[in-house]
Amino acid sequence: MDTTEKVPSTRERQAQQRREKIIQASMQLFWEKCVEDTSMEEVAKCSGVGVATVYRYFSTKIELVIETAEFYWQKVAEKYLTELEQTDTGYVQLQKIMNVLERIFQEEKAFLKFLQEFDVFVKKYQISEERLTDYESGILRLKPYVTDALEKGLADESLFFTCSIDEMYFSLTHTLLAVMQKLAVGGEILSSDQAVEGNRQFRIVTELLLGGIKG
């Protein structure tokens, strides 16, 4: 059997480049405006192609938004998850994961703003779970790192908790993502919101979470 990988043709490469250019334009506009208020015409103008071209690649705005979400998670995962090593105690591994999430909080405000708006968009347009399968796969790329740290932590006694690994994983990640989005997007609406700097608040939350399950 021929196992040689198929080399994309020039036309296929150009099509992929054009597709990514449209997605990059949508990412920029979603940051500058918001997901709901950005039109396909604006995406076309920003990406330097005609509206018909945008619709050729993405038949609806919903399709474009979903693919942008998938692209965003892939981009962030490739940038940050490669830094995670699985050679320390469970506690130290989890601490390093928290440090990576803190960097994402500091450096990826546009990504966090998009995630918050994407959740609202999905609810508003009642997008089915089936259409979000690839998006969910992107989110779950972090899971093996966290569950490995949790399992190792229980084994080496650097961590202690009585709930299941999955319960702890989802509780930790949902809490941290919610805090990241709140502080990144709506962290300074009121004057009192500025009393404690966002990075400091996030660090306190991670210290509380880590301290609560330290062995």
UniProtKB/TrEMBL annotation:
Q: Which residue ranges does the record assign to the HTH tetR-type domain?
A: 16-76
Q: Listed GO molecular functions?
A: DNA binding
Enumerate the Pfam families for this protein: TetR_N
Segments of the chain annotated as binding DNA = 39-58
- Which InterPro entries does the entry link to? Homeodomain-like_sf, HTH_TetR
Keywords from the UniProt entry = DNA-binding, Transcription, Transcription regulation
PANTHER family given for it?
Answer: HTH-TYPE TRANSCRIPTIONAL REGULATOR YJDC, TRANSCRIPTIONAL REGULATORY PROTEIN
The protein's name is Transcriptional regulator, TetR family
